[in-house]
Specification:
Blueprint lengths: L1 E5 L2 H14 L2 E3 L11 E6 L14 E4 L15 E4 L3 H19 L2 H10 L15 E4 L3 H12 L4 E4 L10 E3 L4 H6 L3 E4 L13 H4 L6 E5 L8 H10 L2 E6 L12 H4 L3 E3 L9 H17 L14
Parallel strand pairs: 1-2, 1-3, 3-4, 4-5, 6-7, 6-9, 7-8, 9-10, 10-11, 11-12
The structure holds NADPH dihydro-nicotinamide-adenine-dinucleotide phosphate and oxalic acid.
């Protein structure tokens, strides 16, 4: 078995060392492939255009957590997403930062700072600010734990409504009740046909007046014009976005200049090279031993 990496030269150096230590075969880039039949695993964020070149490919490993951008793979080729505590903790940290920033009126203070305006907004206790987390998967659960520890009353929302200790989780049939109790709404959903365009005007109308939005899922889940109208009408009071549609967000986009919106350029997490390589090694070993592949993506569920 050999793993082909289709990524940056920097990542290739780091992975090369880890694979050498592990005694596994590693090909740092497509230009180094001498016999395509040897490639059984491919690790990438975006796959190369022609995968039919690799007749023995078994598993493609996404070096990130979300796989919505992946095209259909050839029949029989599995997709694994990187499961890495480091990625999950980084996104959790970003969500905590964004939630606190909105909770403590940072957008207004940044705007005032730019004008040298000393004006106080009455701070509110965390225990009075209800946080609703959409997507109670690996990252949503971590975020719920940390935000709960800071004193926020936290609820969750997922397709199944599967219980999570210490958090009331609403299933997909109870979206209205979930939204009605979210003073700060955090989106940590994967992008699927069900979640694409989910956050539109009708959706925002179901939130409490003046609610705040923290978006770390995927840009295409949010209708940006609906966001602007919700901010203008007071339905929403502020938003912090790490993901946008498109990415990069064009320099002349209104959201860059709107003081109610804070934007980071899709940096909630980047996969640490060591963690990514270790996940890839675990996939290769599972394939070799006939064990379930870690991070296997069920593409019938679209992500
Ligand atoms: P998981 O697969 O572990 O969890 C996904 C959660 O979303 C599950 O609770 C699932 O519910 C729920 N869900 C999926 N579809 C729906 C739906 N239609 N309605 C309601 N709930 C739904 O994913 P992760 O926690 O690992 O990651 C979540 C997403 O975070 C990624 O897909 C990616 O888009 C984003 N991300 C962003 C990063 C960034 O840098 N901004 C970095 C990493 C991830 P159920 O289990 O019941 O199906
Ligand atoms: C990811 C991401 O999914 O960076 O890993 O968004």
């Amino acid at each position: 078995m050999a793993l082909l990496l289709h990524s940056t030269a920097e990542r290739a150096v780091a992975w090369g060392r880890i694979f050498a230590d592990a005694g596994e075969r590693f090909i740092p880039d497509e230009a180094s492939v001498t016999d395509p039949a040897q490639v059984t695993h491919l690790a990438c964020w975006v796959p190369p255009a022609d995968l039919s070149r690799y007749p023995n490919l078994r598993t493609v490993i996404c070096v990130g957590a979300g796989t919505d951008h992946f095209p259909a793979l050839p029949d029989g080729v599995a997709l694994s997403r990187t499961l890495a505590p480091g990625i999950e903790a980084m996104v959790r940290d970003w969500v905590v930062m964004a939630t606190l920033a909105l909770h403590r009126d940072l957008p207004a203070y940044l705007d005032q700072s730019a004008r040298g305006e000393w004006r106080q907004h009455t701070p509110q206790s965390a225990r009075l600010r209800r946080v609703g987390i959409m997507g109670m998967g690996r990252i949503g659960r971590l975020a719920a734990e940390s935000l709960g520890a800071l004193g926020f009353p936290v609820t969750g929302y997922s397709r199944s409504g599967e219980p999570v200790e210490g958090v009331e989780v609403f299933g997909a049939d109870r979206l209205d009740a979930f939204l009605a109790g979210a003073d700060i709404l955090v989106c940590l959903l994967p992008l699927t046909s069900e979640t694409r365009g989910l956050m539109d005007a009708a959706f925002f109308a179901r939130l409490p007046a003046g609610a705040k939005l923290v978006q770390a899922g995927r840009g295409a889940q949010l209708d940006m014009e609906a966001l602007r109208r919700a901010l203008d009408s007071g339905r929403l009071s502020a938003a912090m976005l790490d993901v946008t549609e498109p990415e990069p967000l064009p320099a002349d986009h209104w959201a860059w200049r709107d003081p109610r919106v804070l934007i980071t350029p899709h940096v909630a997490a980047h996969t640490d090279a060591g963690e990514g390589a270790r996940h890839a090694l675990s996939v290769i070993r599972a394939d070799r031993d006939g064990q379930p592949v870690p991070g296997l993506v069920d593409r019938d569920r679209e992500y």
